[in-house]
Design goal:
Low-confidence stretches: none
Mean pLDDT: 95
Strand order of the largest sheet: 3-2-1-4-5
Number of strands: 25
Radius of gyration: 21 Å
Number of helices: 13
Distance between the termini: 46 Å
Length: about 425
Amino acid sequence: MKILILGSGAREYSIALALKQTTKNLDLYFSPGNGATQNLGTNLNIEDINEIANYAKTNKIDLCIVGSEDFLAKGVVDIFKENNLTIFGPTKAAAMLESSKTFMKNFLNKYNIKTAKFLTTNDLNEAKNFIQKLTPPIVVKADGLCAGKGVIITLTHEEAIYESKKMLDGKSFGDAGKSIVIEEFLEGYELSIFAICDGDDFILLPVAQDHKKLLDEDKGPNTGGMGAYAPSPLASEELLEKIKKDIIIPTLEGMKKENKEFHGVLFIGAMIVKNEPYVLEFNVRFGDPECEVLMPLIKNPLELILASTQKHLKDIKLELKNEFAVGVVCASKNYPYKNSEKSEIIIKSIPENSHISYAGVSLENNQLMASGGRILVCVGLGKNLKEAKQKAYDLCDNIHFEGKQFRKDIGFWVFKK
């Protein structure tokens, strides 16, 4: 079977690794991939989505898996379907749940799905008036895609107005911030909820928890994610039933009513406030770094993905290992502020029950180089979270590159209880 994976990060590497480990006789292709994905398959240097579809048709690709939100927002799924090609992911219209925060917030409001009080606007005066009605902290979000960095938590009214102005002027996030969402700040803890969907039915994956802030104890600036673990003991059965009944089911039903039937991965960034789930955001693909800890736990990932594309998830059972996974992101020296110089990656050894998912790496003269951003994820598996965490950090200690930085407290929400 020939499978094409779209994207270049640790998420795409993790999907490929899981498929290789659970299914025989696979030929994997990546567009564009990274310096390490070519150890798992073939990297393609194709950017245009029409050309990608042509390649898939010409080379008889059996399945395309979309890892990156950029491809979805551009409409790659629509083009593949027009060419009668099998692809896992939502259409461009359905991907608006992620590509437009304004669409997403209005959708939540329309279908009575719990979310923070909000205003969507492109007018600074309107933003100022709403900001003055809120009690700080106040959340300011760019409407469009910003690689996980378009959310700013401000501590004063003045700061919220300043950040709003910067976004609307195009100084912070370019066109992605020309329309903004201003929200009340919700006090609680975040969980990452993933459902594989086929338009009508869904399968809930283990609940993960991401760590967005750069520094220990959730301090410092927001990043694309500095680590994750799964499954989270913070998600009780009662809470999961609320999430299914109050969020996932009305979302799938609402998207059908909007003529935007949802297929693929529905990723709910949920804030849990007094055991009530509120939607902070929707993503329409696997999270990164959550994907890196979910994939090693799933025994039948290809079966789930194919069932989503063939609309028969109701006939499939999720098969899981009885383990926990912890992933620790090792980032470059200057992340997330600016680019860092390339440096050689040196791996002493890889301890048992651990592995590396590669992201910001390039291959130069057969040497793997840290080329910027989030470089790799150290993943540890264990019979409990403590053991999995130890494995992940043991692996971290065996990897070296210039300026390596990582958080020391992944999973702290559980361990501090």
